Amino acid sequence: MYESATKIYPREISGRFDKLSSLATIVLLGLFYSIPWLNWDERQAVLFDLPARKFHLLGLTLWPQDFPYLAMLLMIAAFALFFFTALAGRLFCGFACPQTVWTEVFIWMEQWTEGKRSQRMKLDKAPWSWNKLRRKGSKQILWITFSMWTGFTFVGYFTPIRELGADLIALNIGGWTLFWGLFYGFATYGNAGYMREQVCKYMCPYARFQSAMFDKDTLIISYDEERGEPRGGRKRSVDPREAGLGDCIDCQLCVQVCPTGIDIREGLQYECIACAACIDACDSIMDKMDYPRGLVRYTTENTLKTKQTRVLRPRMLVYATLLLILIIGLMTSMATRTPIILDVIRDRNTLYREIPNNMIENIYTLKIINQDERTRSFILSVEGVDGIVLDGVGETVDVDGSSVASLPVRARASRDDAYGINTIYFTVTAIDAEGVSVTEDSRFIGPTP
Predict the structure, then answer these.
(1) What angle do CA 293, 297, 301 make, to 5 degrees?
(2) What CA–CA distance (Å, rounded) separates 143 from 238?
(3) 370 with 413, same domain?
(4) Which range (38-42, 108-112, 246-250) has the least confidence?
(5) Does residue 287 lie within any of the structural domains?
(6) 163: how many CB neighbours lie within 10 A of its CB?
(7) What pLDDT is stored for residue 214 in this prediction?
(8) Which of 89, 88, 120, 95 is nearest to 29 (CA)?
(9) CB proximity list for 90: less than 8 A, separation 6 or greater
(10) Position 228 in a domain
């Protein structure tokens, strides 16, 4: 009932999809490991500064108040996933998923230290010896070193990586920093080194709900059963039609190269991550047998049955339209984003205070967030009640770049003009930037008439 999973030894294969996968791995990991070391205006270009609650993305600094941008970005990612899944199945899983990318690197290191598929299988079955210890030990050293560097880089997105490196050399690492570095490194080591296809088959939810995004016109990796059956071995000189055979020679190479250990000839299975290794394997055999390529290929269910391909369909148009709207909306919103944020907090301890000269006073705390990188000077104003004025602040307020200024202010108005509850508007206007202004409303409470 609880049979242990059989270890899979994916065979090496070379082909167009293998080259594409290797290129994607190099590019994606290159970006992951290099981005934290890039600088922008004398600071780290990409830094998620959680203690300061600021996210730096190149020249853009995002604050907690900018959460709608994150929500839109997540929606774009979701619709992009829907779009590409409806178009070409698990394309993301096969070429861009972090699990796939890191597993590919760990397999490279395993091949370099332990040899090709047959050599690895033989080594695992052999008794312990100096050769086995040397090869296994070398692999573990590479895996652990790479995993720890991965954990260090991950933490470098949340802590300035140069300072983190200096602290690491000085053995002055904080508890949480050490925990997350080791945690992410251990997760990389376990997932990419040992669990591998088990993560895709049993832990990843995407494999379970992908069918909801597939239809009969989705491009998937398929075996052309009509052309390939009946399968069977034969010499290259034998005409398969005269022998009553299909083009499949039943060499099992498509099974041997599969990282999840499935047989694509049995039809679409949820374990298939669309890495296309079986396509490269089958094409190499077809070339050797002098048969046409494409026995295993990217195609659709309708194409296999009716020989008709329909890429543009309502589902694709809806996903593409929504994706385009979200991208345009996000870019427009960020391009017109006001670099200041104003929060108005009214003092709730006292409704109002009566002061001399028949005046009513309410107390507020204004939080001015300067999202720009340089210091700005602002003018404060208030309106909404006749004759209302601000007290407690100077003519201008200077706020440092990427910082928050908290100002206690008093708003005063004549008693005769401030009966009941009134809506007032605080405005912050930048002196040194035309058109940079923000207004927030609040309540001004006076005595009952």
Answers:
(1) 130
(2) 47
(3) yes
(4) 38-42
(5) yes
(6) 11
(7) 83
(8) 95
(9) 206, 207, 210, 272, 273, 274
(10) yes
